[in-house]
Amino acid sequence: MQLRCAGRILDLDTAVVMGVLNVTPDSFSDGGLFLDPDAALERAERMAEEGAAILDIGGESTRPGARGVESEEELRRVLPIVERVAARLPVLISVDTSNPELMRRAGAAGAHMINDVRALRLPGALEAVAAGNLAVCLMHMRGEPADMQRDPQYRHVVAEVRSYLDDRARTCAAAGIERERLCLDPGFGFGKSTVHNLELLAHLEEFADLGLPLSVGLSRKSLVAALTGRALTERLAGSLALATIAVLHGARIVRAHDVAASVDAVRVANALRNIRNLKSG
Fold first, then answer.
1. Could you tell me the CA-to-CA distances from 118 to 121, 137, 138, 209, 269 in Å, in that order?
2. Which of 23-27, 127-131, 187-191, 199-203 has the lowest mean pLDDT?
3. Using CB atoms within 10 A of its CB, is residue 239 exposed (0-12), middle (13-18) or buried (19+)?
4. DSSP 3-state helix, strand, coil percentages of the chain (rounded to 5)?
5. Torsion of Cα atoms, 267 then 221 then 168 then 143, to 10°
6. How far apart are the first and last CA of the chain?
7. Enzyme catalytic residues
8. Which of these ranges, 142-156, 184-198, 204-218, has the smallest mean pLDDT?
9. Over the stretch 95-119, which tens digit does the pLDDT of each residue have?
10. Does the pLDDT of residue 183 top 70, yes or no?
């Protein structure tokens, strides 16, 4: 399985880690830590050294309850960092945004991928990605960050999320975005309860027949707190457990804050999955 990213090919026969770099003042885990460009570049270099295949750079917090950021402010935060990272590191660069203007300008700055929690639903987003050659990750989110965790309801969460992602992928293909540029994310923690998140995790393999790589973001999230009772700074072990389970159930991209530890967990899960596949084949 491969993902075509602005002229480069990301091999996803084995799962890889996407390192999180938030250049925001208010992200739930690392808000404010990397606003300074030098600090952001140092963090990017560290994650690349630790084995991240992709760096995901975001300038707008999408944590539960977060408010939006003005377009120009998001551009100001993100584009200089993308340019500096692209000039320094060979790693693939993803831009975590729903902003069509940033999508249009990200490629020229050196990005290879767009990671959109709104799955290109904002006016102009679909056209912005279709006009370029960046890969795009389409994520499921019910509601908006400001209200998404206010009693989310589903009749059949796996079927509903799968149907939504299938529909968005078909919409992208109809707009001229090749399937080789698409990956999907069920959106853990984005308009889901603990039970919803666990149901999705247990049934990730049901997304496989959509034929597209699956990305997951479970690192340090409230799901870990719900399961372990751990504070934000103590969620590494739970995050690694969830990442390992996700890869064993078919995830190909694991979005993570703790890159070195996550790379180790993903390598273990890849090895076990490969053995299982050999025996079943």
1. 6, 10, 7, 22, 29
2. 23-27
3. buried
4. 45, 15, 40
5. 180
6. 17
7. 221, 255
8. 142-156
9. 999 999 999 999 999 999 999 999 9
10. yes
Residue with tokens 């560290």: 46
Do 96 and 58 contact (CB within 8 A), yes or no? yes
Over residues 67-85, the pLDDT tens digits come to 777 888 899 899 999 999 9
d(CA 38, CA 23): 11
pLDDT at 214 over 80: yes
**CA 281, CA 272: separation in Å to the nearest integer?**
14
Query: Residues of 157-188 as b/e, b for ≥16 C-beta within 10 angstroms?
Result: bbeebbebbbebbeebeeeebeeebbbbbbbb
Measured in residues, the chain has a length of: 281
pTM for this model (two decimals): 0.91
Which two three-digit tokens encode residue 141? Answer: 């989110």
Query: Vertex 217, ends 172 and 243: CA angle to 5°?
Result: 125
Place of tokens 């290879």: 112
